[in-house]
Structure formats: C-alpha cells, structure tokens
Amino acid sequence: MTRTAITRQTRGDPGKIWTLEVSGIAKNYGATCALRNASLRLRPGKVHALLGENGAGKSTLVKIVVGAIQPDRGRIALNGVPTRFAGVRQAIAAGVIPIYQHLSLFPHLSVLENLSAFAIAGAAGLRARPALVPRATARAWLDAVGLDCDLDLPVERLSVGERQLVEIARGLGQRCTLLVLDEPTAALTHDETDRLFGVVRRLCAEGTAVLFISHKFDEIEALADDVTVLRDGVAVIDAEPLASLSRAELVRAMLGDMVESGERALPQPGAPMLIATGLMLGPAAGIATRPADITVRAGEIVGLAGLVGSGALELAAALAGARPVAAGTLAVRGETLPAGDRARAVAAGVGYVPADRHAEGLFGPLAALQNASSSTVALFSRGGLLRPGGEAAALMPWLRRLNLHPFQPERPAAGFSGGNQQKLLLSRNLAVPDLRVLVVLEPTRGVDIAARETIHDALVEAAGRGVAVVIASSDLDEVMALSHRILVVRHGSLDGELPRGTGRAALMDRLAGRRAA
Ligand SMILES: Nc1ncnc2c1ncn2[C@@H]1O[C@H](COP(=O)(O)OP(=O)(O)OP(=O)(O)O)[C@@H](O)[C@H]1O
Questions:
Q1: Each residue's pLDDT tens digit, 91-146
Q2: Residue nearest to atom 18 of ligand 1 (CA)
Q3: Tens digits of per-residue pLDDT, 244-268?
Q4: In this structure, which of 78, 144, 362, 485 has its CB flanked by the most CB atoms within 10 Å?
C-alpha cells in the first residue's frame, strides 16, 4: 500500500474527505474492456448504491476496490490517502470489508472458527498456532447481526441466510471503514434483510461508508443515500444523491429508454402435464417432509414460495428429478418416471435451471454458445458430428433476445458476468423444442431489470406453447407476477395454496405460518 497525498471532497461537504475516492479506473480482460473510465466517491456514514446492467462492470470495480484484482490504470484513495491493495487481506487490514454474493465461509469449520478466519489470516506467520477469537467476542459479533446460534456448529448446518449473517458478523468484527455488499440479500428472507439493513444503518451512524450493489430498486431506495450508475465500464451517473433522481431516470441511465411492461396476461391452462405423487425430500435432501402431491397443467405457471430454508427450492428441484428423494414418483404426460432421476426427466422433456449456476449449471471453460446448446446438441449433430451452423441458428436468437452482453457467443462462459451466465442457462432450456416441463429456481437472481422483463416474458411464452412451468423464487413480487397459483412450502412440505391476485402481505403471512383468523 502506498500513502502520499490527501485528496479532498469537491462537492457536498467542502473540506471533508471522501471515505473512498476512485477515478479513471480501466480494466481489460484480454480483448474485453470491463472498465473504461470508472469512478466512485463515497461519503463517510452513507450508503452508496452502485447500479448497472449485467456486464456493466460493477463486480470488476468492486474486486478492484477490495484488492482482489489490480486495475490497468486509475487512482484509489481511502480516507484521502492514495491506496493500492495488493490483496484482499491487505484491504481487510485497512478496514475495507467485502461481503460477497458467493459465500466465502468454510462449510466444515465451526461458526467460531469461521468468525476467527480474518484474525487468523492476519496472524499467519506470526504465531505457531492461530488463535480463535474469544467466545464472548464472537457472541457479541453475532448479537450485532441478531443471530443466535451455537458457536460450535459447523457452518454447513446453518441456512444460507444464517451463513450470510455469520459472514457479515465476521466482517463487523474488524475495524470497518468501508463495507462492500455485493448483492447481499439474494439469499436472505425478508426478516433477515431487515436485520441486515438495521446493521448497515447502525454502522453508518458510526461513520462507516457502505458500497451497496443490488438489482432490487426497492432495497436501493430503502437504504441508499447516493448512487453511481455504470454503463459499459463508465460512470454515467457519478455520485449523485439518490433522492435527486427518479427510478425512470436511473433505468434510463443504466439501459437507455425501456418500455416497462404492465401486468402479464397468463395463458389458459390445459390438461395435466406434470403429476408428482407422494414426493418426499427426506434426509437425503437434508429436510424431513410430509409427502407432497403436485399437479401442473400444460400452460400453467405454478410458483413455489417459502422462506429461506423452507425447502421450496429443493421441492421444485425434485419436480425436475434434480434432487434425491425419500419417496414419490413423477409422471410427465402420463409417462411415469422414478423421482430423483434427472437423466430420465431430461429424456421426458423436463428442463431445469438451478439456483446455483456455479455449482450446478455451467461448464465454465466451454463457449457460451456450447453452454446454451448443451441440452439441444443432439438436434444439431449427425453421426456424432456437429452440423455446421445448426447450433448457432437455433441458439443465437435466444442469446440475442436475452441480450447476452457482450454478445460474444464463442467466449468461455466463465468470462461472463453473473447475470449473463443466468441468461445462458435459461437459453439452454428455452431452446428445447419438445420441452414439456420447465422448472426454474430463482429465475432472475442477479439479472438486471431489462433481462428480468425478458425472462418473465419468455416464461409466460413457454407456458403459452403448452409447457408446464414451475418457478421457485425468494423474490415474492416475481412469484406473484408470474404464477397462476402459489404453493406455500414450510418445513419441506406443502402448506396450502394461494390463488393469483393474493397480496404480498397475505403471502408473507402464510410463508411465516400465520393464517387469517
Ligand atoms: N474473469 C474474466 N474474464 C474475462 N472477462 C471478464 C471476467 N470477469 C468479467 N469479465 C467481463 O467484464 C465485463 C464486466 O463484468 P462484471 O462481472 O464486472 O459485470 P457486472 O456489472 O458485475 O454484471 P452482473 O450484474 O451480471 O454481475 C463483462 O463483459 C464480463 O464479461
């Protein structure tokens, strides 16, 4: 880290120092320009939202700020001191605490060991045996995020939401000058989100600056004071007060003009297409359940909704044969399949988009186009050889429609941003011509507002061509907007059904197990 001059705020509070000032940042990955001329200016004690469509460069900028990668050029100053972190450990030591979208805990280690990880990393090389933080200290950190759990429990036994709170608690245990939250609420329940926002506000009151990346406008409006919008690696809105901008202005800055669609008309459901009988997740999926009977008709969209850890995602995955089950069968248009047999489900025309595209879905080193075509490759092959042009002709329209960015179908999937990887997985399924059932977990997690509209349209269109669609999403607005009916999942079992038009409050009540008197 280098320390030389002091830079001062030029706007707002003259004379005061920006907590973080970033300017003129450029970063190229080979021929791809991820950041052209990015800037950020964060005030102490304020939440700063960083917005931009998928691939705009947000994660790249964050990685530079936290020292995970180095920029090709540009300046970074922390509290007025020019700074360049050689690695994340150095950034953490300086009080720059990153909380990642993809959790960075050690699943087999205990909560206490994970909470101690930063301290251990800092002490490496100095002590023969790394020390754990005192239990009382660890307990105080957990109290700060409102989490009451056993310090000796392996982290893998916690829900995803709880794990994220442990990660945040670990960050809060450090001197925290700048907290970097990259889509932190993707896996949190509404209660956990509220708790997180409470923690963030408290930190701000103590002077911490917060960089907050999200695609969810409601959350941005609830939390952020200032905003920067990146477009193609350039700040097109540069550290403006959020209150001075309308939502339409922000969207226009992100994407250019965009027509917002109103409420979608859903197709009329036809005959039963998918029938699950006695489906029970059981211990193999880590959840004890009661057997579930679920029928989804051709042209119908059924939403599975539940709190984090409810088993809604697992139950939906089981409907695609993508989870081991303790009992039950699936039938697709009358053909009975053993549940838990994904290969048989694929052969029966059951598409599946997992929630965790990194762990389950993508072949990172393969080209985007090959990733998108992996479910339909047989259609373009003859005698084991790919028919030239066939793959591109079938998949390119989908990649164009979902606005793959940058539009470089030959590039390895691993080099695309998170939202664009999600588009590849969706294209893979939507392009299957004899698709009968489509199960999509978290359809728009991490995708930008334009792609969200397109994906919603594409799912309704799939239903329109007779596909039975199942979605499971922690985004309740999405479930309400798309579903003919909503199945409530609690403790891994079905707990009732709600019709289209059910309001958000009523749905929340049911998910939490409250019933109207
Ligand atoms: N490791 C990498 N190798 C090659 N290209 C990359 C790599 N990481 C990012 N890119 C490219 O840099 C650009 C910016 O990506 P980045 O992940 O920063 O976008 P983002 O705004 O965070 O998008 P999202 O909202 O989808 O997460 C994209 O064109 C992306 O394809």
A1: 988 999 888 755 678 888 999 999 988 766 554 444 445 578 899 999 988 888 77
A2: 57
A3: 998 888 888 887 655 555 678 899 9
A4: 78
Q: Which amino acid is at 514?
A: R
d(CA 199, CA 192): 11
Name the closest-CA residue to atom 16, ligand 1: 57
The span from the CA of 180 to the CA of 210, in Å, is 6
- 3-state class (DSSP) for residue 117: helix
| Ranges of H-type helices in 173-275 | 190-205, 217-223, 247-255
Q: Considering the entire predicted model, what is its pTM?
A: 0.71
CA 432-354-385 angle, 5° bins: 40
Atom of ligand 1 nearest to the CA of 61: 18
Question: Which protein residue's CA is at the shortest distance from atom 14 of ligand 1?
Answer: 57
Q: In what helix (H) or strand (E) does residue 478 lie, and over which residues does it extend?
A: helix 476-482
Mean pLDDT rounded to a whole number for the chain? 84
Note the pLDDT tens digit of each residue in 447-465: 888 788 888 999 999 999 9
The number of angstroms, rounded, from the C-alpha of 469 to the middle of its chain's C-alpha atoms is 21
Domains and CATH numbers, the chain: 1-95+178-187+205-255 (3.40.50.300), 105-174 (no CATH), 262-349+437-517 (3.40.50.300), 362-433 (no CATH)
Residue 210's pLDDT band (boundaries 50, 70, 90)? very high
Taking 60 as the threshold, does the pLDDT of residue 285 lie above it?
Answer: no
Tell me which residues have their CB closer than 6 angstroms to ligand 1: 29, 32, 34, 52, 54-60, 406, 415-420, 446
Task: Say which residues have a Cβ less than 8 Å from residue 144's Cβ, sequence separation at least 6.
Answer: 169, 172, 199, 202
Structural element, H or E, at residue 139: helix 135-144
Predicted interface score ipTM higher than 0.95: yes
Q: Are 99 and 174 in contact (CB under 8 A)?
A: no
Instruction: Return all residues near 366 (Cβ < 8 A) that are at least 6 apart.
Output: 374, 412, 413
The C-alpha atoms of residue 333 and residue 330 are separated, in whole angstroms, by 10
Give me ligand 1 centre to Cα 417, in Å: 4
